[in-house]
Each structure stands twice: as structure tokens, then as C-alpha cells.
Amino acid sequence: MIIAGAGGHALEVLDILRFTEYLNPAVYGEDISPFWPSELPALNRLDQVEDWLSSDRNFVLGVGSPKFRKKLYQEFTQRGGVLHALRGPQAVISSTASTSGADILTSAFVGAQVTLGLGVLVNVGAQVHHEARVGEFSVINPGAVLLGACELGSECFIGANATILPGVRIGEGTIIGAGAVIIRDVPSGVTVVGVPGRIV
């Protein structure tokens, strides 16, 4: 197993892996956290990744940026890697949700008939409620709440403790600031902050 990414989020991913089944994963990144355990392998070149994947094809995404999640996914799968979806302890996931290829971290909630795209991150304590749809590689940060039947495009970034009201649609690549409350549809590629949310 390789953790693709080597900053602070990778440390949280390491804890989840150790809690579940993988005790000694490698990490890949150019700037490896100074807190990374020195006894674990650290890779900083893609040729090293390719060698590692020849014996263990599994990898997890260890970054919290939508664009970097997508980039690392592409680099690793092009070299034969297979994405392993994380499931944090005490996460609650409906049996009717579609979550293949998404990371759902500790104490997160994913409700009935939710669809999470490939590479999505539902971070610690975030909530995605019934019938919501989340596009590929979007990131829902700690404490954020997506209420029923809302829809996110691909590569969105939802800040910590933001709230998206029911039925709201958010275009791809949009950033929602921490603590914002989104009460109406938002176009692609913009940044929204405040209560109620406004484009800046």
C-alpha cells in the first residue's frame, strides 16, 4: 500500500490504515511531513512508485486538494495502481448509497441514495444527506453538511463547517469557504463565502 501524498492529510490517512488493516504503508511525495514515521518507506520519485506497485498495486489518496487528488490518481493508475477506498472508524454509510472509490473518514455520515464519485473525500465528521450527488474528486471538509438532494460538480472544495441547503446545485471546480451557508445554485469555477453565501 502506498499513500499518495505526504503532508498532514497523509498522517490522518496513515492512522486510519493502521486502525483497519495496513500497518506499514509507504508514502509518496516531494515534501514529506517531518512527522512521518521514520521507520516507514518514503518514496519521492515516480519510478520508485512503479517499482513498489509491481508487488503491491494498492494505493490511497493522501491529499485534500481536488486537483491533486485527481493528478495523483491518474499518475498511479497509469502505472498499474488500484485505488483503495478508505473507511474511517465510526463512519455511518447507508446500504443504498453508491460510494465506490470514495474516501469516507472517521465519524462521517453518508445517507440514503447518495452518490459519491470516484476520488471523493468525505472528511472527518462531514455529512452528506439523502439523494445528494457529489462529482469526482470533490472534497467535503470536516464538519461540512450537504443536505438532501443537493448536487456538486466534479473537483469542488467544500470548506469546513459549510452548509449546502437542500436541492442546491454547485458547478464544477467551485470553492465554498469555511462556514458558508449556500442557499441557491452556484455556477462553476467560482469562490463563495459568507452567510448567506456570495461570490467573491
Layout of helices and strands:
Layout: E1 2-4, H1 8-20, E2 26-28, E3 42-43, H2 46-53, E4 58-61, H3 66-78, E5 82-83, E6 92-93, E7 103-104, E8 109-110, E9 115-116, E10 121-122, E11 127-128, E12 133-134, E13 139-140, E14 145-146, E15 151-152, E16 157-158, E17 163-164, E18 169-170, E19 175-176, E20 181-182, E21 191-193, E22 198-199
Parallel strand pairs: 1-2, 1-4, 2-3, 4-5, 6-8, 7-10, 8-11, 9-12, 10-13, 11-14, 12-15, 13-16, 14-17, 15-18, 16-19, 17-20, 19-21
Antiparallel strand pairs: 21-22
Active site: 130 (proton acceptor)
Site (Increases basicity of active site His): 131
GO molecular function: acyltransferase activity
In short:
This protein is of the alpha/beta class and 200 residues long. 17% of the residues lie in helices and 24% in strands.
Task: Describe this protein's structure.
By secondary structure, the chain is an alpha/beta fold. The chain folds into 2 domains: about 1-85, Rossmann fold, CATH 3.40.50; about 85-190, Hexapeptide repeat proteins (UDP N-Acetylglucosamine Acyltransferase, domain 1, 3 Solenoid), CATH 2.160.10.10. It has 3 helices and 22 strands. The protein has helices spanning about 10-20, 45-55, 65-80; strands at about 1-5, 25-30, 40-45, 60, 80-85, 90-95, 105, 110, 115, 120, 125-130, 135, 140, 145, 150, 155-160, 165, 170, 175, 180, 190-195, 200. The strands form 4 sheets. It has a 7-stranded mixed beta sheet, with no helix packed on it. α1 links the parallel β1 and β2 (about 25-30). The longest helix is centred in the first third of the chain and has 13 residues, at about 10-20. The protein is globular, with a radius of gyration of 17 Å. It starts with a strand and ends with a strand. The mean pLDDT is about 95. GO terms for molecular function: acyltransferase activity. It holds the Pfam family PglD_N.
